Amino acid sequence: MVWGYMLSLDCGGCDPISIRSSLIIETFSKELVKEIDMKAYGEPQIVHFGEDNKAGYTLVQLIETSNIVAHFCEEDNAMFIDVFSCKPYAPQDAINVVKKYFSPTKITEHYIERIIPIY
After folding, report:
1. ∠ Cα 28 61 8 (to 5°)
2. Hey, where are the domains in the chain?
3. Is 55 left (phi over 0), alpha (psi -120 to 50) or beta?
4. Per-residue pLDDT of the chain (119 residues; tens, 9 = 90+)
5. Nearest to residue 6, comparing CAs of 102, 110, 84?
6. How far apart are CA 84 and CA 45, in angstroms?
7. Which strands make up the sheet holding 106-115, listed edge to edge?
8. What angle do CA 52, 55, 59 make, to 5 degrees?
9. CB atoms near residue 99 (< 10 Å)
């Protein structure tokens, strides 16, 4: 039995201006929620922290069926995002929004269906 759906994207070569803008990240988050047909639970949390090569913004957006979490690594112009939901969604819709806002030159995609173990 499928319990949830998980999309993880590792994105390289992202637009350096976009990944350093809390306003762009917030706009991205809201459009992503809409495009994958989810309902946001509260406002996105967007915080800049970290040191050295780990510094950058982190985004957490709760959705009624789980969450969206992303980290933007400034040193490497990279983005790492996980979209998890009990409600099905089209992974390509999420990928299209990522491309629109951050223009990665490389995306490594992992998509899995989370299964409830039966004992």
Report:
1. 75
2. 2-115
3. beta
4. 889 999 999 999 999 999 999 999 999 999 999 999 999 999 999 999 987 768 999 999 999 999 999 999 999 999 999 999 999 999 999 999 999 999 999 999 999 999 988 77
5. 84
6. 16
7. 45-49, 56-63, 66-73, 78-85, 2-12, 106-115
8. 165
9. 12
- Give, for 37, the enclosing helix (H) or strand (E): none
Q: How many residues does the chain have?
A: 119
Are the C-beta atoms of residues 67 and 5 closer than 8 Å to each other?
no
**Exposed/middle/buried for residue 81 (C-beta within 10 Å: 0-12, 13-18, 19+):** buried
What is the assigned CATH class of domain 2-115? Answer: alpha beta
Q: How far apart are CA 87 and CA 73, in angstroms?
A: 29
Tokens describing residue 117: 């173990």
